[in-house]
Structure formats: structure tokens, C-alpha cells
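Before the break, one more example. Copy the sequence into your notebook; we will annotate it together after we see the structure.
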Amino acid sequence: MKILKSYAGLLVFLLLLIAFFSFKSQHFFSSGTLVSLLNQIPALMVIAVGMTFVLIIAGIDLSVGSVLALASSVIGVAMLDWGWGLLTAVALALLVGAICGALNGVITVKWAIPSFIVTLGMLEIARGGAYLVTGSSTKYIGAAVEGVATPIGGLGLSPAFIIAVLVVIVGQLVLSKTIWGRYALAIGASESVVVYSGINPRSVKVGVFALSGLLSGLGALFYASRLGSADPNAGIGLELQAIAAVVIGGTSLMGGRGSVVRSFIGVLIIAILETGLAQIGASEPTKRLITGFVIVIAVIADVYRVRLAGKSKN
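Here is what the structure looks like once it is written out:
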């Protein structure tokens, strides 16, 4: 009962969005639209999982979209130019993503540089790497990778979505049921207390950024499979969508509090907003304006939640 209560507000907002767009567009509330929406969000889902952990330790990762593009480019080059199979190409992409994330973490921790600055630099490095790897051209992979995004079974859901749901479940279990997850929450709440307790937060923080990079590599597979190609321009703005989804889901920008499942609901809210606004004919500027307002409201709500929590403790 307590778990359902913690998700109630988000679920009500989600249902209200669905009801509103169903009223405004006769085509929105249909199995075809909803299944198509779910099959479009696996990349954002897994990246939001990584971003949840990053925000929980009071960090931020602006490089996820560019790391996705680099990892996607690696998949394309490995399969088309080097003749590698899908599994080995994906393994290399995951490794590339994890290395980029680990570098973010090591530089942030070792030199005490704000993660905003470090990941902003990685954003440019990874994007430049994607252009260099592909020669600034799209690599058309085709059927060899499209199967991951092809709907299967009676529900019409893709393997990519099913894998992404499993990542969400595992991510929530790691956060709530493991010592590593509890350390991450403690670091975000008060890193100094963690240090005074005799725990070294450095390895946890590096691990969190490495996880974010690894999941960006997995997102690259989902992105490439949906497009049937590796595009060095892929993932532009994806970091903002991920941050928006995670913040809307209730993870605090100040660290110390968050939920992977709630971030998943935040992804659904972002996706429904974009799809619904497109179906009712909203222009691109209008879509960005409304989505921006939702993000700002979510941040303001987070600030008030923190203040109320502080007052209740006092």
C-alpha cells in the first residue's frame, strides 16, 4: 500500500495526460499508438536509469546523448567495415560507453571538478569521436540490427522494450536492495557523513558514471535498431530528455533521493507529452514550451519537497 501511495501522484498525472490527449485526438487512445509509443522509448528508458543513479549522488551527466552516438557509430563501423557480428559489435559499444562514463567519474572524483563541466567536455569529445569514426556519414546497417526493434508476440512489443523493462527492474533492485545502492543514496544525501563513517565514496561515484556510460552504449543498440542505421548525429538533446524524465519522476537534483521505477514513469510522461502534442497538431516551438514548463514545475516541486522534508525533521 505504501509503495502504491508513493507512485500515486505520478500515475494520476499520467492518466490525466492520457485522458486529455484521448479527448483531443480520436487516434491517440488506441493500441497501435500506445504500442508504437512504448517501442520508441527503450533508449531513453535505459539512459534514464543511469541518469537516476547520477542525480542520486548529486551529479549530472550531460554526455549521454553523445556517448550514445559514439557507441552507435562503433556498432555501424564494426559491422559494416570490419565484418563483425551484432553481438561482438554491441559488446564493443558497451565497452566504449563504460569507458567514457568511467572517465567522467575518474576526472570528477580525482580533481574534484563539477560533473557538469566534465560531462560537458565529454559531450563534445564523444560527438567529435562519432563524426571521426563514421567519417561524418550515416552507416546503414539494415536487417542485421533491426530485429532488436521489431515487434514480437501478440502484444507487438519489441525485444528492445522488453530488455529496457528488465534494466528498469534490475536498476530498482540494485538501488533499493543492495549495499552499493544504499551507499549511492547516502553519498547524495551527505557525502561528508559517508566519509566520516569510514566509507570511501570515490569508487561508488566512478561506478555510477561508468554505469551511465554503459547504459548509453545499450541505448545506442536500441537507437540504431529503430533507425536501421548508425547516425553520428543521434542522441542530440537526449540528455535533456533523460534529465527531464528523471526529475519529473521525483529524483532530487540535490541528490540523496530517487527511484528508477518513478524515472520510468517520468519517461512515459515525456513520451506521452511529445506524442500527444504531435497528434493534436502542436508546433515544435509549442511542444518545447510545454515540455519546458513541465520540467520547471517538477523542479519547483522538488525544491518544496526538500524544504518540507527538512521542516518535518525539525
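Residues 37 and 271 are 7 Å apart (CA to CA). The mean pLDDT is 92. Try to locate both features in your own notes.
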